[in-house]
Amino acid sequence: MEDLIKEKVEQLVNYIMKKCLWQFHSRAWDRKDQNEGILTKTRQLLCGEPVELETPADRCWWVDAVCLADAFKSRYPWLAAMDKAEIKQLMRCLHERMDYLTITGSLNRELTDRHY
Amino acid sequence: MPYHEFSCSKCIPERKKHAVIKGHGEDLTAALPLGYLNTIPGSISERGCAYCGAKHVIGTPMKDVIHMSHGPIGCTYDTWQTKRYISDNDNFQIKYTYATDMKEKHVIFGAEKLLKQNIIEAFKAFPNMKRMSIYQTCASALIGDDINAVAQEVMDEMPDVDIFVCNSPGFGGPSQSGGHHKINIAWINQKVGTVEPKITSDYVINYVGEYNIQGDQEVMMDFFKRMGIQVLSTFTGNGSYDDLRAMHRAHLNVLECARSAEYICNELRKRYGIPRLDIDGFGFEPVSVSLRKIGLFFGIEDRAQAIIDEETARWKPELDWYKERLKGKRVCLWPGGSKLWHWAHVIHEEMGVDVVSVYTKFGHQGDMEKGISRCEEGALAIDDPNELEGLETMQTLKPDIIFTGKRPGEVAKKIRVPYLNAHAYHNGPWKGYEGWVRFARDIYNAIYSPIHQLACVDISKDEIPADKGFLTQRMLSDANLSEDVISSSSLRQYTGKYDCLPELRKKTYSSFESKLADVV
């Protein structure tokens, strides 16, 4: 079961790494905000839950989340067979993996620079 | 993802951590080339300096400005007309270059008087130009000339002019990228917020990190205008000085080249709350997704979709004609910074070529993270390569073509590898849908050039076949294609015009109903 989730997470990670740019902002705190903002909204969209759109930043994250959710749905048919709880678990694992690849495990030495 | 050691750089062991090979099943946490560090002594870098990055890359594309270098004449001359960032005001910023012509005596006695005299002379010589950028160089920085004070003195004496000062001497960073940073910050500190713009649409953006290489900005502007979006400013290609002073009033910053201009986007985000949306203007799918995102942000997705459908139907058959003929061709993607990640995946997917190596002259580790993620397994990724490493890579990987700047490009020609100019283009624009077909056409023309085939023959040792006639491009490119592809009625070569910009410049746009009760 764990291997199955891992395999699905890797498929989603590959899509993000190949097609998106939002995960590679230049500082660790910025990447954390981006991952949190976009992946949370993607999860909400995939689960049919309301998405907060209060600020311009929310709206900007939502835009990337809409495109990501659409791409996931069209490319990975197995997503349609998952229930909400499974999608939430999948997205939680995806979020952890993205944080690792782009922040905590990243070898980019500029991530902790105090200035932009 | 093992580090790669070049044979030619064994004598510079520090170089080893600047190159990796993307291995099977490995991710970015295994290895990442070092980047944005001082060039190692002994390594003949292809980088430019921080002055060049500030002036030549970012400052000079501004079109209605006198761009003055305060330093020896060589600094301005050597950065003049090397990049084709055109403009719709008869290319004023490319046609002329200005320097204060500092000499040894000024190093001893100071050059502030000389600077003031030059500023006034330039404004008098071009009375219609009321805006100026002054760029510090190594020489004027080292002697401590106070450029800001001189500029203020002139502005006090000539109230109708405005001057921007960029203190980014050549030594101010490991590469031109240091200059990108300095001019971004200088512009927002000195100029943003000093002009209030006229808002004419419900949807207002700054288009940032776009330099109008051979008309790229004008292609994208056409899409934005068709969507009813007001582009307050372009940072900086074909951009106007006063428009860029009003950047603080946009609703959204659309960022193209994050390498050169993310700094100002980030500052606008923090200081003015304007969000940053990163886009890709190259390739059918990336540009479509980008337009859709902007449409979504403003709630006008249908307008974006109409453009996507129309442009794709018009140009896709032409892109596919080239894709059939470029499949499997080996490419070294060796640009300066951002194009390594703008292009790495999309030239593979949409043109069928295989990217066997990526490099960046001045990129940071973040650019390598993006580039390595997007290229295919087995690709060799190099940071700040030297000329010998470039040669060794070409001899080892045997690419069919390289996309790079003109200095390494000329080196490639010497070993008979065709190259396309990734910085200034060949027959651009290359952005947008038609532009992407033009890029494919340029690749096709370079790889299958009959002249190139002839150039590969070494008359000093090769036997010259006397029984064969001249081979045309089509004879070369279609040799191994199926009859179905060759005689396909749905695929066709590029049918656009030699220069696609004049029509864009004449185009008029329908207006959309505005929610602004009273357009101010």
Provide an overview of this structure:
The complex is a heterodimer of chains A (116) and B (520). Chain A is an all-alpha fold. Chain A has one domain. Chain A contains 4 helices and no strands. Chain A is globular, with a radius of gyration of 14 Å. Chain B has a domain of 141 residues: Nitrogenase molybdenum iron protein domain (Rossmann fold), CATH 3.40.50.1980. Chain B has 23 helices and 14 strands. In chain B, strand 11, helix 16 and strand 12 form a beta-alpha-beta unit. At the A-B interface, helix 1, helix 3 and helix 4 of A face helix 11, strand 9, helix 12 and helix 16 of B.
What oligomeric state do these chains adopt? heterodimer
Query: In the CATH hierarchy, what is the superfamily of the domain at 50-190 in chain B?
Result: Nitrogenase molybdenum iron protein domain
**Structural class computed from helices and strand pairing of chain B:** alpha/beta
Strand-residue proportion of chain B: 5-15%
Low-confidence stretches of chain B: none
| N-to-C span of chain B | 57 Å
Number of domains of chain A: 1
Determine the number of helices of chain A (DSSP H or I, runs of at least 4 residues).
4
The CATH topology of the domain at 50-190 in chain B comes to: Rossmann fold
Please report the total strand number of chain A as a whole number: 0
Q: What value does the average pLDDT of chain B take? A: 95
- How would you describe the shape of chain B? globular
SSE string of chain A: HHHH
Content-based structural category of chain A: mainly alpha
- Radius of gyration of chain A, Cα only, in angstroms? 14 Å
Record the SSE blueprint:
The complex is a heterodimer of chains A (116) and B (520).
Chain A: H1 2-19, H2 28-46, H3 56-75, H4 84-104
Chain B: E1 19-21, H1 50-59, E2 66-70, H2 73-77, H3 92-95, E3 98-99, H4 104-109, H5 112-125, E4 131-136, H6 138-142, H7 147-157, E5 162-166, H8 176-190, E6 204-210, H9 216-226, E7 230-236, H10 241-244, E8 252-255, H11 258-272, E9 276-278, H12 284-298, H13 301-326, E10 330-333, H14 339-343, H15 346-351, E11 354-360, H16 365-374, E12 380-383, H17 387-397, E13 401-404, H18 406-414, E14 419-421, H19 432-447, H20 450-455, H21 473-477, H22 483-486, H23 501-506
Parallel strand pairs in B: 2-3, 2-4, 4-5, 6-7, 6-8, 8-9, 10-11, 10-13, 11-12, 13-14
Antiparallel strand pairs in B: 1-12
Helix pairs in contact in B: 1-8, 5-7, 8-11, 12-13, 13-19
